[in-house]
Hints:
Elements: E1 2-8, H1 16-25, E2 29-34, H2 44-52, E3 58-61, H3 64-67, H4 71-83, E4 87-90, E5 95-96, H5 100-133, H6 146-156, H7 162-170, H8 174-186
Helix pairs in contact: 6-7, 7-8
Amino acid sequence: MRIGYARVSTDGQSIDLQVDALKRFGCELIFSDEGQSGARRSRPGLDRCLSQLRVGDDLVVWKLDRLGRSLPHLLEVVSELDRRRIGLVSLSEAINTASPGGVLVFHIMAALAQFERALISERTKAGMLSARQRGRHVGRPRKLDDGSVIAAVSEADGKPGGVADAAIRLGVSRATVYRALKRVHCA
């Protein structure tokens, strides 16, 4: 039996392309995860899919990175499937682990996918470092600008409940006020 698995990382993405391809390939059952990172080893849809597979079945995915994001995790899943005598088919990479050649292609493609992710991560980190060196804020937008922190804390200074009252007035937590104060005083 061919059993399909589809995954998208965010709720805003559509899983339709993958599901359509799995149906065209002849998958009788299709399990999916939406809004689930491939870095997570345990995913509800994948766990149900793996428990459904029996000897002689094929697990079919649209692309290897839908199954897992790291080479060790992919190798672990494929080893477990092989131990259980279950094949893996990846439609985009034309991989079928039922043959020795398919296993070889799987290992090569999985290694290349991990290499590509490492390059993307490296470029992202370099871009963030460059932005920081130019004085740009990297990350989530700040809830408080420096001026509002200074004004609120100056007003509360010396009064009972100082920072706590300032935090309530600004609509943030005390930790946010303390981080902003640290940023203002270190600048």
